[in-house]
Design goal:
With about 425 residues, the protein is an alpha+beta fold. Helices cover about 20% and strands about 25% of the residues. It has an eight-stranded antiparallel sheet with strand order 16-11-13-12-18-19-17-20. It is globular. The structure holds flavin-adenine dinucleotide.
């Protein structure tokens, strides 16, 4: 049986996926392996999760969400999906500070790649990790919390350090969010003061197809109850008259509720509902992170490429992410803007265009999303991570046999 990722653009080199149901069984597989990678919910678009040895999933290990109200953390099984973590948390009156665009991704897989949602003051999902329990290559277990040496290198791990068993996530009291979509705003007006737009809500996303290079097609504003309500319009763009999907012409049934109706955080922070297939399915994604101060100039640098981008594109999304101190995080050391592209699934054409996009962004030292498609050379990537050498040393310390290394990591020099 051949195994594919979610998007179907790649077949894993391993021919089977082991799904141990106990920690002992998993530890046995790890100890016996010469090459092994952990598979999350398969939502990455590149070979980061791949191996020609054994693929192992933690999805069949017992699921649990244990709330420590005093420490304000929930200890959850890393193989669980965010959507499945959110329900029991909400039932007990708690929330996660943020979600990505979809609740279908596994916790351990998302944090391993620095997956993020949006919000000027919201860190990536990895930034909300308070502790990690890792099964290392020798079959031993390490618990790392924020004050421990190596913690900052272990959260956005690229899957290089071992199997993440449990994750401690920061929690906050449950809150309501109202989501409003505004339409057709001019880029020139947005770029004149990008921060004024991204600060309009708790979480703000700008969507554009680049078909009209002068226009941002949609601005999604997720306003937290108790904060200022969303405005009546955004730079002349009015609120949509009906629910909208980010992809033009696609029905909005799979999207979380819009129209400014307040509701629980877990039903608004993600763009897509857990019970539907998110986005479109047959697609590829790329994303580059730049410093927030550079974002207007970086977007201006992309605009001349609009006519080259648009034919291959489903939609682009611009989001903000707060700085963190996680060594391999796209937001390491700088408040960040993510410039995202959801592409049609034409890998060759996308990979032919990416170098042009990367060249246009190069003055801004873009860091690629670890789980998406990029063509930047490893040397350029490494120099954009000041703690790269420390991350490499941590990998060698926790996995001296290199059991968790794969071609993706070797090519990066990790
Ligand atoms: C429709 C769609 C929407 C998306 N939206 C967003 C978004 O809003 N924001 C964003 O930033 N990204 C987004 N992504 C990208 C996605 O979040 C990342 O690729 C993420 O890593 C996927 O998690 P996963 O569980 O599928 O991991 P996988 O793709 O299965 O694996 C990713 C990495 O995690 C490692 N890993 C998985 N589980 C473990 C474990 N238990 N222990 C150690 N390592 C592990 C793997 O080895 C691999 O290195 C989206 C992807 C899709 C398909």
């Amino acid at each position: 049986m051949t195994e594919h990722n979610w998007a179907g653009n790649l077949t894993y080199s391993a021919t089977s996926v082991a799904e141990p149901t106990t920690r002992d069984e998993l530890a046995g597989l790890v100890r016996a392996a010469s090459a092994i990678r952990v598979l999350g919910s398969r939502h990455s678009f590149n070979r980061i999760a791949d191996t020609d040895g054994l693929l192992v999933s933690t999805a069949a290990l017992p699921a649990h969400v244990d709330i420590d109200a005093e420490r304000r953390v929930a200890r959850v099984a890393g193989g669980m999906r965010y959507g499945d973590v959110a329900r029991p948390l909400h039932a007990e009156g708690w929330a996660l500070g943020n979600l990505a665009s979809l609740p279908h991704i596994s916790v351990a897989g998302a944090i391993a790649t620095g997956t993020h949602g949006s919000g000027d003051r919201n860190r990536s999902l990895a930034g909300a990790v308070a502790g990690l329990e890792i099964l290392t290559a020798d079959g031993g277990i390490r618990m790392l919390r924020r004050s421990d040496p190596g913690f900052a290198g272990a959260v956005v791990s690229l899957g290089a350090l071992g199997v993440v068993l449990d994750v401690e996530l920061e929690i906050v009291p449950a809150f309501d969010v109202a989501q409003t979509v505004f339409e057709r705003v001019r880029w020139d007006d947005v770029l004149a003061d990008l921060a004024a737009v991204t600060s309009l809500g708790y979480s703000v996303s700008l969507f554009t197809t680049w078909r009209d290079p002068d226009v941002v097609d949609q601005v999604w504003v997720k306003a937290r109850a108790g904060d200022a309500a969303a405005p009546q319009h955004v730079l002349g763009g009015g609120a949509a008259s009906a629910p909208r999907h980010p992809l033009p012409g696609v029905p909005a049934d799979s999207c979380t509720e819009q129209g400014g109706v307040a509701g629980p955080w877990l039903d608004r922070l993600a763009h897509f509902r857990l019970e539907f297939t998110p986005s479109q399915g047959e697609e590829l994604q790329s994303e580059y992170f730049v410093a927030r101060d550079d974002a207007p100039a970086a977007i201006r640098a992309l605009r001349p490429l609009a006519a080259r981008i648009a034919p291959l594109l489903l939609v682009s999304e611009v989001r903000t992410i707060a700085a963190d101190d996680l060594w391999l995080s796209g937001a390491y050391g700088r408040d960040t803007v993510g410039l995202h592209f959801t592409w049609r699934r034409d890998q060759a054409a996308v990979e032919a265009l990416l170098p042009e996009i990367e060249a246009a962004l190069s003055p801004f030292d873009p860091r690629p999303h670890w789980g998406k498609v990029y063509t930047l050379p490893a040397a350029a990537i490494r120099e954009r991570y000041p703690r790269w050498a420390d991350a490499a040393a941590l990998r060698a310390e926790l996995d001296p046999r290199g059991v968790f290394r794969n071609t993706f990591l070797r090519d990066l020099g990790l």
